[in-house]
Design brief:
Blueprint lengths: L10 E5 L20 E2 L2 E2 H11 L4 E6 L4 H6 L4 H9 L3 H11 L3 E6 L6 H6 L2 H4 L4 E4 L3 E3 L5 H12 L2 E7 L9 E7 L6 E8 L10 E9 L2 H7 L11 H11 L6 E5 L4 E3 L3 H13 L5 H13 L4
Parallel strand pairs: 1-4, 1-6, 4-5, 8-12
Antiparallel strand pairs: 2-3, 6-11, 7-13, 8-11, 9-10, 10-12
């Protein structure tokens, strides 16, 4: 183990306390994380990604009206028995799979004080080990190994790691943006600073922050001393900026540039695209749906 190297992260934190206002009225009585992407709720894709990356302990930060999240990952013996008696073995397997993904814990945020506050709520559960944060709105293609790569970079550097993605320069004002320096001989980059939603002409790069982080536990002390920022909330970006500002006094901030496929299910258009694309790739739905899409597209007019 190198001087900077730390033990491998094995815990994941998934903030899921948001109100989902962009999808009202659908989210008036349903958590936005339970909106289906084809036939699985969006949150299940995120938990599956964490488990596939070797994270065997998941903590979900929830809020009021989020009980459906716990119910979804719990056993339903009556339903399982009914499916078994009916010979619906494929459906039974799908239902049982959601309950067998791994060790999932739940903790309420209580006060909506921002993403940084939600992550801080995980302090006692996480302890002094590095951990991953996965935002539920970001769906990463299941064939990608982004999170595994980030965990490896964190273990090798001993610092904190953020996922970055190139976006058109004119769109960078919709994202947090990273000022980076290449690291010789490495596929990851050094993050020198973070700018929240800069004007395109002021942005240090076209690298946007997306919803995957692997953090050194020093982030908790920094969050405890981070005053409310934009929107009166404790911003995780502000805490990560503090790590960058500290330089050698901290463990460092690094980035992994993601070039794969991602959907933002918190955005209506991207959510619809996720449903269509993923359904088109399914063996049971894809052939008929692709034919329908082709026929439908022929009738579209500019």
């Amino acid at each position: 183990m190198s001087p900077n190297q730390t033990k491998r992260a094995h815990k994941a934190v998934i903030p899921a306390a948001g109100l989902g206002t962009r999808f009202l009225p659908a989210t008036k009585a349903m958590p936005k994380e339970m909106l289906p992407v084809v036939d699985r709720p969006a949150i299940q894709y995120v938990v599956q990604e964490a488990v596939d990356a070797g994270l065997d302990d998941v903590l979900m930060i929830t809020g009021r009206s989020k009980r459906a999240l716990e119910d979804h990952f719990d056993r339903v013996p009556a339903l399982e028995a009914s499916l078994k008696e009916s010979g619906k073995d494929k459906l039974l397997t799908e239902v049982e799979h959601a309950s067998d993904l791994g060790e999932i814990h739940y903790l309420r945020q209580q006060d909506p004080k921002g993403l940084g506050h939600a992550v801080l709520r995980a302090k006692t559960h996480v302890g002094n080990d590095p951990f991953a944060v996965l935002l539920g709105d970001d769906l990463i293609d299941e064939s990608e190994d982004l999170l595994k790569r980030m965990i490896e970079v964190q273990q090798a550097t001993g610092g904190s790691v953020v996922a970055l993605m190139e976006v058109p320069q004119e769109q960078i004002s919709a994202y947090g943006c990273a000022d980076i320096t290449a690291v010789d001989g490495q596929e990851y980059v050094q993050v020198n600073g973070l700018v929240e939603k800069p004007a395109p002409e002021d942005a240090p790069s076209n690298l946007a922050i997306i919803g995957r982080y692997v953090l050194h536990p020093e982030i908790f002390e920094i969050l405890e001393n981070t005053p409310p920022g934009r929107g009166g909330e404790i911003q995780l970006t502000d805490a990560m900026q503090t790590i960058s500002d500290k330089g050698d006094q901290a463990h460092g901030m690094y980035g992994v540039v993601f070039k794969g496929r991602r959907f933002d299910t918190g955005d209506k258009l991207s959510y619809l695209k996720a449903n269509i694309v993923l359904a088109c790739e399914r063996g049971d739905l894809g052939p008929d749906l692709r034919e329908w899409v082709k026929d439908f597209a022929k009738d579209l007019q500019d």
